[in-house]
User: Fold Two component transcriptional regulator, LuxR family from Streptosporangium canum.
Amino acid sequence: MTIRVFVVDDQDLVRTGTIMVIQAQGDMTVVGEARDGLEALARLGKVVADVVLMDVRMPLLDGVEATRRLLAGAGAGPKVIVLTTFDLDEYAFAALRAGASGFLLKDAPAEEIVAAVRTVHEGDAVIAPSTTRRLLDHVAPTLPLPADPPIPLTDREREVLQHIAQGETNAEIAGRLFLSEGTVKTHVGRILAKLHLRDRVQAVIWAYEHGQIPRI
Assistant:
């Protein structure tokens, strides 16, 4: 199956370079491009895309609001990967809360970008451990403290959630907790189901917002 990609960036050089990288892949094709959020929403209403690479800082309509509007409609919309210049970027965090499936730095290697597209297309989320941890540690102190709601997770599931929130992969979690990857995958699935979350990105945000990760 060919992955249909839509590229949104207000910098012509960056947008063109990203398009060239995507078009060079045998399993991907670019179905459209846009210079800002408004243009992206208009064009995405006329084409079918599986994955949108969305810059967060743009004129007219930024990537955060564009992502929110794009994913607010009924039915399954495209997956969104937000692109940011800064690894400590509140815009990127806001885009994740708006429903994006992950974020990448604009200067990420080409192989990292195409790997991210494949990952979100398969239904997973893109979490770069180091940048995600720095970003959320930077933003977490600004989040409101939770009202201590009941959390329907077992002790093991809480433990797995804490490792997810640190950006660790299933293999890394399995190694730390002396479990098989299959068992970790089962725990992750139960966590998402119990908390009514879409993917690991939402799990990370939920963990921080509900005080499951120690504040700095």
